[in-house]
UniProtKB/TrEMBL annotation:
Keywords: Isomerase. This is N-acetyl-alpha-D-glucosaminyl-diphospho-ditrans, octacis-undecaprenol 4-epimerase. The keyword Isomerase applies. Gene3D superfamilies: NAD(P)-binding Rossmann-like Domain. The gene is gnu. The lineage of its organism: Bacteria, Pseudomonadati, Pseudomonadota, Betaproteobacteria, Burkholderiales. Residues 3-223 form the NAD-dependent epimerase/dehydratase domain. Transmembrane segments: none annotated. Pfam families: Epimerase (PF01370). Its EC number is 5.1.3.26. One of its GO terms (molecular function) is isomerase activity. It comes from the Bacteria.
């Protein structure tokens, strides 16, 4: 198949393009900078974040069967934009619609839109989120992702294009940055962490598992559309995650059992309530549709994924 991937040189995009090439598909890497995506892919350069410049036909693309849309304005903890929601909408909603229109003109019958668990909300409704739950996003990023899901579903219904929405939770793996990288650094240095009392469970997905699920959904010959949750299927507690990372380093986790109420009080005093709330609250998703409807199981276990992530961190990959 001829599969176009936007955001092909990103964290998930590189792994996905590699898997698609390994399984014999022709990949068109839609990127803004040349030379840093999968070497076996054909590059299609774009000039803007919201795909406006290629919405009218995407001549560089030629023909494609499926578009996987990974490109997005990602979640920013301390967003200094004057109107954050407008900035997210321009890229995550308008950009996704422009990309869908261009891909349809290029012959694509299906679009895989990679959304986010944040389209559902910041916490869970007392149980893991299901695919058919009513989302309740809170922050501008989550709102824009949910609005994009709705807009693309309407577009697909009107234009006869299959729209598949994938909602991953926290994605980790070789090359992961931000908070997960900071956590690995702290564990590696033996810094005591006040997380021993945090038993909140968080769904996660290894980047290789996410890429495999996207590949399966993109190349499935049967008609496929709707919302799919993807995770490793083994939701660790926050303290359990730290212990697993420490095990990958061959070290003991230095966890201090600080009560969660104390951590939340500290968050209010330091102006970091949102970060502490995320750290101490459960956020899990069910993956029933991927398992029951598609028959997909994650190729890597959590322990294997974390071990590979730590190995890459230690070798500087």
């Amino acid at each position: 198949m001829q599969i176009a991937v936007s955001g092909a040189n990103g964290f998930v995009g590189r792994t996905l393009c590699s898997q698609l090439c390994d399984t014999g598909h022709d990949v068109i890497a839609i990127v803004r900078r040349s030379g840093i995506s999968e070497a076996r892919a054909h590059e299609c350069l774009i000039a803007d974040d919201n795909f406006e410049g290629i919405a009218d036909g995407m001549p560089e693309l030629g023909r494609c069967d499926v578009l996987v849309h990974l490109a997005a304005r990602v979640h920013v903890m301390q967003d200094r934009m004057a109107e954050p929601l407008a900035a997210y909408r321009a890229v995550n909603v308008e950009g996704a619609l422009n990309a869908a229109a261009a891909a349809r003109r290029a012959g694509a019958r299906r679009m895989i839109f990679v959304s986010s668990v944040k389209a559902l909300g910041e916490g869970e409704p007392g149980r893991p989120w299901r695919e058919d739950d009513q989302p309740a996003p809170v922050d501008p990023y989550g709102i824009s992702k949910f609005e994009a899901e709705q807009a693309l579903t309407a577009f697909g219904r009107e234009k006869g294009m299959e729209i598949v929405i994938v909602r991953p939770p926290l994605v980790y793996g070789p090359g992961v940055r931000a908070n997960f990288q900071g956590l690995m650094k702290a564990v590696d240095r033996g810094i005591p962490l006040p997380l021993g009392g945090v038993e909140a469970r968080r769904s996660m997905v290894y980047v290789g598992n996410l890429a495999d699920a996207i590949r399966v959904l993109a190349t499935r010959p049967e008609p496929t559309e709707g919302v799919f949750h993807v995770s490793d299927g083994d939701d660790l507690s926050v303290s359990g995650m730290v212990r697993a990372i420490a095990g990958g380093f061959g070290k003991s986790a230095r966890l201090i059992p600080v009560p969660v109420s104390w951590l939340r009080s500290l968050g209010r005093l330091t102006g970091r309530s949102a970060q502490i709330e995320r750290l101490t609250s459960s956020l899990r998703i069910e993956v029933s549709r991927m398992r029951k409807d598609i028959g997909w199981m994650p190729p890597w276990t959590v322990s294997e994924g974390l071990a590979e992530t730590v190995r890459a961190y230690r070798t500087g990959r």
